[in-house]
Amino acid sequence: MREVGHFIGGKIVAGSSGRKADIFRPATGEVQATVGLASADEVRMAIANAAEAQPKWAATNPQRRARVMMRFVDLLNQNMDELAELLAAEHGKTVPDAKGDVQRGLEVAEFAIGIPHLLKGEFTESAGPGIDMYSMRQPLGVVAGITPFNFPAMIPLWKFCPAIACGNAFILKPSERDPSVPVRLAELMLEAGLPAGILNVVQGDKVAVDTLLTDPRVMAIGFVGSSDIAQYVYATGAAHGKRVQCFGGAKNHMIVMPDADMEQAANALIGAGYGSAGERCMAVSVAVPVGEKAAEALLERLVPKVEALRVGPSDDPDADYGPLVTRAAVDRARRYVDLGVEEGASLLVDGRDFRLQGYEDGFYLGPCLFDHVKPNMAIYKDEIFGPVLSVVRAKDYAEALRLPSEHEYGNGAAIFTRDGDAARDFVANVEAGMVGVNVPIPVPLAYHTFGGWKRSGFGDLNQHGPDSVRFYTRTKTVTSRWPSGVKEGAEFSIPVME
Ligand code: NAD
């Protein structure tokens, strides 16, 4: 059986720890490969490799680093079909959706091409007598990224493209559930001209993560995954003196005002709630119609659309969404649906018994839609990460605004309305990091930044965009005076500008 290895020092290295995990093909349920889970020593080998290669890369001028990113973008485009098929086969999402996964990562590689401009510092001439002052951004050294299963191309690309363009060496620890695409990305970076050792991929689990979190050579950690692990990584990394940013889970609300175009809102909910089987941190999992009339008008359109959703294997061109990533993910989501029924919510569409003919062992779950969900229910409070949408009816706008604002997660939130005042108030006051106005999944483009609030984000800088350059560099500020400007004698008071 195929075994996915690490990528260290510019080549694939077979795992040697003796520990392995299965990689499934979610569409059929079969095991298609295994992946070696790194020992602490294997991770240290990758760190040593990165630490050795990094100074030369940092000394390579930014324009040359940008050219590597430029060639990498070309290679991503040339290999798009292969990457998307590999990704879909391990993750389960449909092939067009997998292309979107690569594409939204590729856009951050495009952003990183601008690194010569992005890294320019600041300069003040004659800040004092004969004194010039300037600041520059220098790479941190060796940095690491720990990424989730649900975007095996996009999130690694969000992490390593800006980090590497800034002059760092990068250790990627991708999800052990779909680890093949990250290795292909590293191979393509090498083909694009990146020196060996600047991008290493270590496959693994908690052992690998803990080694990265505690090794003093790793200067910064970027994490994306579920909130409890995000908080653990944040606390442990910070306790070991590292710069850390961690992005966690979500429960994204979409408010539907009574004046909204209900057909548009229902279509938006279908795509944002069930696309990728709901396994997106920006999926809409709660719809909040405002007022009973809006709720009835929305549900009248939503229910038949949910019932008509087509679930199929990842390579079915007509599938709206595919299988979930593992059997455990299906069981977990089903348990939540059972719980919602026990808690008293009305299950309008029940996908629990969905079976796909010819794919009986695949990890499928039919679409589920709940109405009359209340904020005290577990299906409202927890992230289910499956094709399950909850409708919470709000009596007025004030209540609708409170729901996402008081939820423990604060990743995305959207409002559908024709009322500019309501939209403006929502944008200003909702407690979430990314907001959509008539846009259900407001994922910012590469040159803006991505990040949630509350338990959706730990740390103070976002991913990609200008924040990524701030995160992966440190500022050095220089005050310089040449001998002709130096006063005679010693100064004992703190220097002040005259
Ligand atoms: P996960 O937390 O299980 O795993 C994420 C990473 O952490 C993986 O690389 C995994 O190997 C590692 N990990 C798992 N358990 C660990 C432990 N005990 N100690 C150390 N490391 C550990 O998340 P997942 O299931 O792969 O991904 C889904 C989650 O990610 C969802 O909660 C989703 O909302 C979230 N997510 C968030 C964003 C965002 O930007 N906020 C984006 C995508 C996904």
Describe the structure.
This protein is 39% helix and 22% strand. By secondary structure, it is α/β, with parallel strands linked by helices. The protein has 2 domains: 2-248 and 456-478, Aldehyde Dehydrogenase, Chain A, domain 1 (3-Layer(aba) Sandwich), CATH 3.40.605; 252-437, 3-Layer(aba) Sandwich (Aldehyde Dehydrogenase, Chain A, domain 2). The strands form 6 sheets. The protein has a 7-stranded mixed beta sheet, with helices on both faces. The chain has a 6-stranded mixed beta sheet with strand order 10-9-8-11-12-22, with helices on both faces. A hairpin with a 2-residue loop joins strand 6 and strand 7. The protein is globular. Nicotinamide-adenine-dinucleotide is lined by residues 146-151, 173, 175-176, 205-206, 209, 224-226, 229, 247-250, 281, 383, 385, 411, 452, 456. Residues 146-151, 173, 175-176, 205-206, 209, 224-226, 229, 247-250, 281, 383, 385, 411, 452, 456 line the site of nicotinamide-adenine-dinucleotide.
Task: Specify the CATH homologous superfamily of the largest domain.
Answer: Aldehyde Dehydrogenase, Chain A, domain 1
**How many distinct beta strands?**
23
Coarse structural class:
alpha/beta
CATH class of the largest domain: Alpha Beta
Largest sheet: 7 strands, mixed
Strand order of the largest sheet: 15-16-17-14-13-19-20
**Which residues form runs of ≥5 with pLDDT under 50?**
none
**Percentage of helical residues?**
25-40%
Bound molecules: nicotinamide-adenine-dinucleotide
User: What's the mean pLDDT score?
Assistant: 97
The CATH architecture of the largest domain would be: 3-Layer(aba) Sandwich
End-to-end distance:
74 Å
Shape: globular
* Number of alpha- plus pi-helical segments: 16
Roughly how many Å is the radius of gyration? 25 Å
